[in-house]
Amino acid sequence: MDRGNEEQSSKFITTEPLKVSSEAGEQKVWDAVKSAFSDRNCIGYWRYPIFSKVGEIRKEPDILITDREFGLVVIEVLPVTIDQIVTINDGIWQLQNYHTAEANPDGRAEHQLRALIAYSDRERAIWRRVTGRAMVALPLITQEQWQQKGFDQLPNSPPLIFQEQLGKMGCTERIQQIPPAISGESLEDKDWELLLSVIGGTPVLRKAPRATISTTGKTRASIMDSLRQRLYEIDLQQEHIGKEIPPGPQRIRGIAGSGKTVLLCQKAAHMHLKHPDWDIALVFFTRSLYDLMIGLLDQWIRRFSGGELLYDPRTNLKLRVLHAWGAKDNPGLYSTICDNHGKRRGTVGDTKERQPNRGLADLCKRLQEEIKIEPMFDAILIDEGQDLVTEDNLKYEDKQAIYWLAYQALRPVNEEKPEERRLIWAYDEAQSLDSIAVPKAKEVFGENLSNLLSKQPQYPGGIKRSEVMRRCYRTPGPILTAAHAIGMGLLRTEGMLAGITNKDDWNRIGYEVKGDFRRLGKPITVHRPPLYSPNPIPEIWGTPVLEFQTYGSRQEELTALAENIMHNIVHDGLNPSRDILVVVLGSTSEAIELETEVAGFLMDQDIDVYVPTALKLNDLVPQWPNHDPDKFWHDGGVTVSRINRAKGHEADMVYVVGFDNVARNESDVNCRNQLFVALTRARGWASLSGVGNYPMYDEMRQVITSGDSFTFTYKRPPKRDIGDGEAV
Fold first, then answer.
1. What is the pLDDT of residue 517?
2. Virtual CA dihedral for 191, 197, 202, 203, nearest 10 degrees?
3. Which segments of 489-533 does DSSP mark as H helices, in order?
4. β-strands 512-514, 523-527: how paired?
5. Contact at 8 Å (CB) between 40 and 70?
6. Helix axes 333-340, 401-408, angle to 10 degrees
7. How far is Cα 606 from Cα 595, in angstroms, rounded to an integer?
8. pLDDT tens figures, 295-320
9. Which of 140, 318, 331, 675 is deepest in the core (most CB within 10 A)?
């Protein structure tokens, strides 16, 4: 499909495939709408997730069109023949030989329209300015049949689209003829974009302005506050990923900061409201993300239910947020499956593996060797998927043990295709700190099912089996490109260490390539266009958003750190907690020691600090049982964290300390990856520092100077190839 046609079709989102046999009438209307609106400035949804309560069930609109000229158009589809309608009284349709005895299609459509208008009216710029129409489509009834029955003489005849009006011209003409249920006015460009953002749901993610210290001039806080209120223009790819429910497996590979976690939570909330009887698990690896996940689920469930429902993990047993492993108080995917099968769950002490993901893989492998796993979930969504892969010796048969356990615990979507199960996993191509494996289809499903994603790239209705997200909304372009280049070692004298070695995979994460990776010893240039880095802070700030400094001693490094943090708090108006983050680098022992040293030094400079898992501020070495493993922030304190706990979090200003601990081991892929993860925590600015002098420091300076383009000689295949090498 060429790019123009692809963009045209991508503006129509089928949130769940229609059933061929039972929803043929609905399909007819949806196809007609897509054809009629294909050349218009609009976005259309089949079953947009806004769930209004109708009797005992919640129902979303069949079709929603957001159109530049028409405003909001809600169409309820009633695929009945004229003989199936017995009577229509006060909007209630009495039906026969149909799956329901009565319906109120026009009332339902208007109710859903008003729920959507209520969201647009929350935005001052478009308050009471959006036009809205609600109507009923009758794909199996002609206007003549309707008139012969005398239904056109009803005192309050509903606005209808008949069978013969479903042509390309007839459909838009008919919609235009129907008077608006809610009158509005034509919108200017910026207001139209705002309406699209409202329909996308991005106001859910808007942060409240902070209580700032009064400062004059352009400060970091003033810039961040202006951006907190800004809504990015609608991202059609994100709309598809967040609102579609695939009838089988789906992989979401995204660049750091592309919004994978937000979209998985949106997808899980949508699934739960659409199918309240489903057992759904949202799985993650970094324990300190627990509160973030619950908060996002709550926001999306409130949004999709019009504020009528909320999410409480203590009482909601159908939609569960599960840490991959699980703990005594918070069940995880592994522990829940063990409990369901009457097996004792293993602990860290039961495995000889030192890294948490390897220990979990070991236990998942053993569990599958001991028992047959019975299906217990309808959908499992995995975030941070890169952290759940291990090397070959911990695989179950030829499959990643954790993923295969999840897959086995899923009910087949239908009996005809038992291999199709809703395992949805998102991963970042360069964020695993412990493994050089990547969760490709072959790794997840093994050799026999390795074509599950590629055999048919799309499900019926256009839902993709595999998505790749190029745009980074969180991290400013200069920080992201530097993080990629230093993490992969693109400008190393000895050649790149890790990364991508084909043009298609570079394109998929938002880079253009000149050169040929098949020709060793030849120059390659990779360039990141601004389109894929929409964060505007570098342009607004005007001076570099990424700084790199080296010092003669750790004392000097920490003195500068304390002065900078104090400046951020006093002059920039940043809050110590959540706006500022200090990440320390190094091996486990080095990082533990440096974390304590940094936190202690800042305390000596009268800066309150928070070390993750502590119950209070200024506790430098939190000890069991007086700790909370799910806690990462604490009001009033600057969080000082090792990299494993920082992953998944973000802050306006990020300080990365102890570069020397990586520079001493510059050829270690996982050490470099710490740098990548640390730098990409930044929403606005990053400051990198280290002591001494190492060749890698010169490489870093060269990386920063290179900006958004890197030219290097491709000398040999890297230690870790993070490309897909797959056609999907």
1. 86
2. 30
3. 503-508
4. antiparallel
5. no
6. 50
7. 17
8. 999 999 999 998 899 999 999 999 99
9. 675
Which three-class secondary structure state does DSSP give residue 89?
A: strand
Under 8 Å between Cβ of 109 and 77: no
The reply to whether omega before 625 is within 30° of 0 (cis) is yes
The rounded distance, in Å, linking the Cα atoms of 326 and 360 is 10
- The whole-angstrom separation of Cα 628 and Cα 649 is 17
- Whole-angstrom distance, CA of residue 317 vs CA of residue 348: 26
Whole-number Å distance between alpha carbons of 365 and 361: 6
- What is the C-alpha to C-alpha distance for residues 608 and 576, in angstroms, rounded to an integer? 8
Collapse the DSSP code of 616 into the 3-class scheme (helix H, G, I; strand E, B; otherwise coil) and give the result.
coil
Beta-carbon count within 10 A of 551 CB: 17
Q: Which two tokens stand for residue 651?
A: 């802050």
Q: Is residue 727's pLDDT more than 50?
A: no
Beta carbons of 44 and 13 less than 8 angstroms apart: yes
Tokens read off for 175: 């919609």
- Concatenating the DSSP letter of every residue in 375-438 gives P-BSEEEESSGGGG---GGG-BTTB-HHHHHHHHTBPPSBTTBTT--EEEEEEETT--SS-S--
> What's the length of the chain?
728
Closest CA to 46 of 18, 69, 72, 25: 18
Q: How confident is the model at residue 721 (pLDDT cuts 50, 70, 90)?
A: low
Sheet hosting strand 92-95, strand order edge to edge: 85-89, 92-95, 102-103
Task: Please give the DSSP secondary-structure letter assigned to residue 289.
Answer: G
Residue 447: its pLDDT value, please?
A: 84
Residue 101 token pair:
């005895």
pLDDT in tens, 578-634: 999 999 999 999 999 999 999 999 999 999 999 999 999 999 999 888 889 889 999
- Cα 82 to its chain centre, rounded Å, is 45
Q: Is 628 exposed, middle or buried (0-12, 13-18, 19+ CB in 10 A)?
A: middle
Residue 558 has pLDDT above 60, yes or no: yes
| 7 alpha carbon, distance to own chain's centre | 21
End-to-end CA distance of the chain: 14
pTM comes to: 0.91
3-state secondary structure of 580: strand
Q: What share of the chain is helix, strand, coil (3-state, %, to 5)?
A: 40, 20, 45
Q: How confident is the model over 67-102, as pLDDT tens digits? A: 999 999 999 999 999 999 999 998 899 999 998 999
In this structure, are residues 486 and 672 in contact, taking their beta carbons and an 8 Å threshold? yes
